[in-house]
Amino acid sequence: MVGSNTLARRITGLYVPLGLFVVVTLFPFYWMLITSLKPSQELYNARVFPLVVYNPTLEHYVGLLTQTRFLTWTFNTLLVATGLVFGSPTVLTTRNPDWQSLARRKKPPKTGLLM
């Protein structure tokens, strides 16, 4: 019969590889999340199954926000990123005569660009 095994082919040819790809792609994010929620004793205990959090805690997040300057670093990163996003088009669209003369050249300079 025509089309009798299309569902089986679709499952084995598309959904199984796609499911494996999603699991492999999302596993590092899951690992980071469960590691951040585990207490230190559970992190270093070899007898505990590593993929399950038995005693979730926020101690690592509290330590990150109180014992480091994480919020300052985050603000600085956002400030630099915002400056780059909004500053680059401004610099690139200014009418700089040096850039215009370089753009109009038909062949590259023989003595070098900076000379």
Structure notes:
The chain contains 5 helices and no strands. The chain is mostly helical. The longest helix is centred in the N-terminal third of the chain and has 32 residues, at 6-37.
> What spatial form do the alpha-carbon principal axes imply?
flat
| Sheet with the most strands, sense and barrel status | none
For the secondary structure, the number of strands is 0
Low-confidence sequence ranges: none
Helix proportion: 55-70%
Beta content: under 5%
H/I helix tally:
5
Number of domains: 2
What value does the average pLDDT take?
84
Label the structural class: mainly alpha
Query: What's the N-to-C terminus distance?
Result: 75 Å
- The H/E string reads HHHHH
* CA-atom Rg in angstroms: 28 Å
Which short descriptors sum up this protein?
67% helix; mainly alpha
What can be said about this structure in brief?
This protein is an all-alpha fold and 115 residues long. The chain contains 5 helices and no strands. It folds into 2 domains: 1-67, no CATH class; 69-107.
Topology at a glance:
Layout: H1 6-37, H2 40-43, H3 59-67, H4 70-93, H5 97-104
